[in-house]
Structure formats: C-alpha cells, structure tokens
Amino acid sequence: MSAVDLNEYMADSQGRLVHRDNVKEIDKIRDGLVRSIAIEARTHRNMMAKFKDVAMSEIDAFVEMSASDYGVSLGGRKGNLNLFSYDGRQKIQVQVAEYVVPDERLNAAKALIDKLLNSWTQGSRSEVKTIINDAFAVDKEGKFNLQRILGLRRLEINDPDWKKAMDAISDSLQVIGSKRYMRVYERVGNQDKWQPISLDFAAL
After folding, report:
1. Which helix (H) or strand (E) holds 104?
2. 20 to 30 A Cα–Cα from 71, which one of 91, 100, 101, 194?
3. Count of other CB atoms within 10 angstroms of residue 67
C-alpha cells in the first residue's frame, strides 16, 4: 500500500482532508491569499515587538544617563514619563499599567454589604441596592468588574459597617504584575493638539 502524499490534500475547517482536485479553484486562491497575508502580519508583528524592546531599552538608558548628572542611579525599570523633542513637536510617553486583582477579602466585603442591605429598609435605599448588586455581578467567565466595585467607595454612606466593607475592598487589592506602554505623538502643521503616531494596525 503506497503512502499518502499529504501535499495533494487540503484540510478543511473540520480537519478533514480533501484532495486538491476536489477543492474549487476560488477556494484555493482564497486560502493562499489569507495564508500569505497572515505570514506578513506575523512578520510585522515581530518587527514591532522588536522595535518596542529596542525603544524601551534606549529610553531607559537615556533616563539613567540624565539622572547620573545628579549623582543618582535609578536602577531597574522606570515609571511614567514624557520625553519631548527640542522643538516640542514630538513626544514619547511611557506609562506603567498595574494588574490589580482582589483576594479573598473581597468576599468579606460582599458579606458585610449584604448584611447592610438586609438591615436597610426598602424604598429610599433601593437605588443604592441596585448599584451594589450590579457592581458585584460577574461576567460569563465568573469574573468581577473591578472598576464597578471600586466605584462603590465613592458613595457617601455614613455607616461603620459600610466603611469597614470599603476598607476590606481596598485591603483586598493585590498588584500581581505590570506592563509598560509606549506612545508616540507629534504636532501636525500649526496645531497645538498632539496627534498619536498609531502603531495599532486596526487604527490605520
């Protein structure tokens, strides 16, 4: 029994092998087009990732050199900063975003708030109850919307248990990592407004 030459077959979306003679020519052309563009996109993505790494390293080296004028060694990664060209027409902005997640103390906060909701009368506080229940709702993946929960701390509720619950929310927040972002801006023509030099393919 002769071996099957897989080059004579194409796999469909369900993983089934279809002989090339049985695949429409337009489907072959579409397949080739998509694969070619995907390969180019992956190449440019890798180039952009390399550019970011090099640019960040150069920025860090410059900031360290600038600090050395004052006898200071910053060491490690730098925080948020803005760098401007001499004529003020280009700007590089580096920002650090921290990944914050709540630990088990968030459950304690929810228990305290539930106790308060049960003790409060219906009516005048119904709007607050709706806001709180919405804040602690989870998405399809079972995750909390942290921004909504943190928004509860802006509510002016003078109750010792409420304040204790807000403290539990604050104490539950743990920084588990961070990521640095670099954005490049320029002024176009005589405009004072900064225009981003987009490195987002979808924004081009």
Report:
1. none
2. 91
3. 14
Residues 2 and 61 in one domain: yes
Joined tokens for residue 4: 């099957």
Q: Give the separation between CA 65 and CA 59, rounded to whole angstroms.
A: 10
Cα–Cα distance for residue pair 167/106, rounded to 1 Å: 10
> What is the value of pTM for the model shown?
0.66
Same domain, 57 and 83: no
**Contacts of residue 183, Cβ cutoff 8 Å, sequence gap at least 6:** 92, 93, 94, 95, 196
Closest to 148 in 3D by CA, of 108, 106, 98: 106
Asked if residue 195 and residue 142 are part of one domain, the reply reads yes
Say whether both 177 and 194 belong to one domain: yes
> Percent of the chain having pLDDT more than 90?
38
For the chain, give the mean pLDDT: 85
What SS3 class is residue 19?
strand
What average pLDDT does the segment 53-81 reach?
Answer: 85
- Measured between alpha carbons, how far is 179 from 167 in angstroms, rounded to an integer? 27
Chosen domain end from 18, 46, 78 = 78
Count of structural domains, the chain:
2
**Which of 99, 121, 105 shows the shortest CA–CA distance to 164?**
105
Query: 171 with 136, same domain?
Result: yes
Cβ neighbours around 41 below 10 Å, total: 11
Both 134 and 83 in one domain: the answer is yes
Residue 168 has pLDDT above 70, yes or no: yes
